[in-house]
Amino acid sequence: MVGVLNSRTFYxxxxxxxxxxxxxxxxxxxxxxxxxxxxxxxxxxxxxYAKIFRSETPTSLSQKLCESVYKIPGQFAQNAESILIKxxxxxxxxxxxxxxxxxxxxxxxxxxxxYMADRSYASYVISMSSEETLEKNWNKIDYFYITxxxxxx
Length: 153
What we know:
By secondary structure, the chain is of the alpha+beta class. The protein has one domain. The protein has four helices and seven strands, in the order H-H-H-E-E-H-E-E-E-E-E. Strand 1 (51-56) and strand 2 form a beta hairpin.
């Protein structure tokens, strides 16, 4: 009969699928978490002048499932900071030691956290900081960085 699997074919398919999910990247295998080289694009986050700088999807068992980092010129950083505060709950940037960071380390969230299939918890963090600098005038700072990270805890 066409369309009916015999038991041997069924078990082969089951083995192949099991191996796929055991060997797949944990970020892909865990239900409800989607990673990409460009998390802003994937999650429809629009911050003018932000350009992808680097992307990482760790292959080892780590809490960080994936991360995308974007560069934004200093002259456009205040607008980006304003978006991150209003839309994502990040705290205002303050100068600490050698750069600009969210006050009290309070980063924002770009998606509601949730439990995953393996009972760990997915957190979606968005943050902004400057490159290392002593400069207080943002227009004179070459770049700020916006980081989107998905963690499993």
